[in-house]
Amino acid sequence: MPPPRGTSAETLLAYAFSVRAFTATEAIDTTGLTRSTVLAACEELVRLGWVRELDDARAAGEYRIGRPARRYELDAAGGVVVGIDAGQHRVTVLVADLRGTVLGRAEGALGDSGLDVPVRLGVVGETVAAALLDAGVDPLRVLVSVVGIPAPVDAGGASPGDGGFWDRMNPGFADAVPGHRVVVENDANLAALAERPSSGDASFAALLSGERFGSGLVVDGVLLRGAHGGAGEMRVLDLVEGVGSSDGIGATARRLVAEALAAGDVPPDSPLAADADASVLFRAAHDGDPVALGIVDRLGDRLARVCVLLVSLLDIDRVVVAGAIAEPAGAVIDRARAWLDGAGFDPVPEIVASTLGADVVVLGAVAHAVDAVRAAPLSFALTTRPAVPAL
Length: 391
Known about the structure:
Layout: H1 6-18, E1 22-23, H2 24-31, H3 35-48, E2 51-54, E3 71-74, E4 80-86, E5 90-96, E6 102-109, H4 117-135, E7 142-149, H5 165-169, E8 181-186, H6 187-199, E9 204-208, E10 214-219, E11 222-223, H7 249-262, H8 278-286, H9 290-314, E12 318-322, H10 330-343, E13 350-353, H11 360-375
Parallel strand pairs: 4-7, 7-8, 9-12, 12-13
Antiparallel strand pairs: 1-3, 2-3, 4-5, 5-6, 9-10, 10-11
Helix pairs in contact: 1-3, 2-3, 6-11, 7-9, 8-9, 9-10
């Protein structure tokens, strides 16, 4: 049942989320509620576990004359959220408090079994349990879990049935993941949510660029989804001259190295002769390896064409190259910038590398989960069950 003073409690709780410690007077000035209403709402929220009372202002050294003011703050540890990056080959989980501060982390490997639904759900569940244990948190305290997947997702959390990859990526996580609410979201959309604070008011694309291209699109401050959740899916790249597929920078780098090896273009003393991994390619290019430099040029040209497509369709200001590949692929981004500067396209988007690395999706999942709690906090019942003891 909703608390009896739901409206005033919700107003005060929204204020508590937006500030740190506060007094009743400060809450009155901001919310417009009366003193008696604020004090009653504070008592109610303390009882419900959302707010805690602190030392009064005099004890805290902030008040010297007259009656000391009572101070409160959001009890950020009253519940937790879980962010999950459930990729095809790897799972990363973060547990965070209600302000998004990370409390625990775990990673799980799927390897070549990522398309096996029981294995996928099992690894996701085990990795979430390990992260909760790392945080010392009882699963019953999880309010919202957000699962990021490499598939389009509509507003209800469903992916279009394709009889294959998308079905396996989104088989349903409600029984595998704890939480009063389990939300499934596209991984690139979550990357866009993670990048939004650093992009300000810009219209931008967060372009996941490792194994495949997928983009989270923010236009005029709104995250685009589409009727079936397919906004930002990059299958159209199959038809774009000079791109040819939605394979990302990492996957394309390996393919181009393999083609160079097969053609006999790689000298035996080149590092590419021993390892075709993208990280080896980028190091070799940095060291001046001519074959590696040529491949980096081709990757940069290809990335630039992807950016032109996004800008032409959406009139965005910025493309944020995101994922674990973003930092090591700096030379590719530089080549894409040079290609755009010389190609005569206008306007030319800003192309930047994300600073969030491989965690961009899981950090977006945490942010999305915190936002879900903040949107309707009193719809969740907090539990005071003890934490799981750390091993």
